[in-house]
Specification:
The protein is an alpha/beta fold. It has 2 domains: 8-80, GMP Synthetase, Chain A, domain 3 (2-Layer Sandwich); 90-362, 3-Layer(aba) Sandwich (Rossmann fold), CATH 3.40.50. It contains 11 helices and 13 strands. The structure holds adenosine-5'-diphosphate. Residues 99, 102-108, 135, 267-268, 304, 306-307, 310-311, 314 line the site of adenosine-5'-diphosphate (ADP).
Length: 365
């Protein structure tokens, strides 16, 4: 069985009956195994498993029944093609961070990944698009600050405010602390447009977008305007949070959105009340988000325990991952490294030199 004759062109020809040619990303052969990387036209689990069965049956019947066929489904990498903003063209990677439920730690995760990327040497910005509960101005000690206007090629633009080296724009700069921002859809969308398009972001390696919880109009509006390279979904392991997180995953996979999900972060995974015993208490349930990532075939980016210092760091406006030699720093360094690996995996269009540069900066293997 080990010296089977393998011909890529013949496989492509046979699969014409079940796939479009551009759905076949790669075909490799090792001994009697043929590995196919395929972009599914329908990304649901059920559709993928049916497609996988059809491909294997077709190849067994019409090509060679002695090979062992393995299918690996890939997401379509988004390119900056529908980006109508010249300003955002100087941003290399846009990552949306979302949670379907509020209060699960989406902003905490965003702020800590941002400072970790910055410490790796990347140029980083955060757009706090959580119109209904902005928090970046608090987490980066910018309460009461207002962005200045600058002239860019004759146009007046908002200059993001820098804190710990991160460029930040937040709807929180324009509202009073105790004022609930209950805007209606069109007003919220207009305000967001200004933060995105009337801003002087300059050169950035990463722009992280802290989305509002849920799966509403704001999300659609952002995804349609900006070319988002990938999304991160944050959830606690709790069943109600997971049910909502599933909706979030489905949203990104909708045909009209189709943004690759880079991974799932499980926040508030457990609590260690006694440092001596190190016994973990699974307050919100165990491994819920981890299991969900397996069900949906999405990378798991890591778990963050409940840490009092992480909450305190957010409240005083200095993200916890900035604390040297801390557990928090270690957790977010690992998570950010995994995130970068997942991003590179999905963005095959980057030149090899750029990939090497990013990997070296992030300390990836
Ligand atoms: P979201 O953006 O999803 O609404 P936040 O990041 O604002 O959630 O977090 C909600 C609250 O929970 C904040 O007070 C934050 O400091 C706290 N928090 C988030 N994650 C953790 C954690 N892992 N340990 C301790 N507190 C946390």
């Amino acid at each position: 069985m080990s010296n089977l004759k393998f011909k890529k062109e013949d496989i492509i020809a046979v699969l014409k009956s079940v796939l479009k040619e551009d759905q076949i990303v790669n075909i490799n052969n090792f001994n009697n195994e043929v590995l196919l990387d395929i972009i599914p036209s329908n990304p649901t689990h059920k559709a993928k498993s049916e497609l996988s069965k059809t491909i294997i049956e077709t190849l067994k019947n019409d090509y060679n029944s002695n090979f062992d066929y393995k299918i690996d489904f890939k997401s379509i990498p988004k390119t900056i093609q529908n980006n109508d903003s010249e300003v955002l063209s100087s941003v290399k990677n846009v990552i949306a961070i979302s949670s379907a439920k509020g209060g699960v730690g989406k902003s905490t995760v965003t702020s800590n990944i941002a400072v970790t990327l910055k410490e790796m040497g990347f140029k980083v910005g955060i757009l706090d698009a959580d119109i209904y509960g902005p928090s970046m101005h608090i987490m980066f000690d910018l309460i009461g600050r207002k962005p200045l206007a600058v002239d860019v090629d004759g146009k007046s633009k908002m200059k993001p405010i820098e804190s710990f080296g991160i460029k930040i724009l937040s709807i929180g700069f324009f509202t009073k602390m105790d004022q609930a921002v209950i805007w209606r859809g069109p007003m919220a969308t207009k305000a967001l447009n200004q933060l995105i398009f009337d801003a002087d972001w300059g050169d950035l390696d990463f722009l992280l977008i802290d989305l509002p919880p849920g799966t509403g109009d704001i999300h659609l509006s952002i995804m349609q305007k900006i070319s988002v390279n990938g999304a991160v979904v944050v959830s606690t392991p709790q069943i109600v949070a997971l049910a909502d997180a599933r909706k979030g995953v489905t949203m990104y996979r909708q045909e009209n959105i189709n943004i690759p999900i880079l991974g799932i972060v499980e926040n508030m995974s457990y609590y260690i009340p006694d440092l001596k015993t190190q016994e973990k208490h699974y307050i919100f349930g165990k491994d819920g988000a981890k299991n969900m990532s397996e069900d949906f075939d999405i990378p798991f980016l890591g778990e963050v325990p409940i840490i009092q210092g992480l909450r305190e760091a957010g409240d005083i406006g200095r993200p916890g991952a900035l604390q040297d030699d801390s557990e928090i720093k270690k957790i977010f360094s690992e998570m950010t490294k995994t995130l970068i690996e997942c991003l590179l995996e999905r963005n095959k269009k980057l030149p090899p030199t750029e990939i090497l540069k990013i990997k070296t900066m992030a300390g990836c293997s």
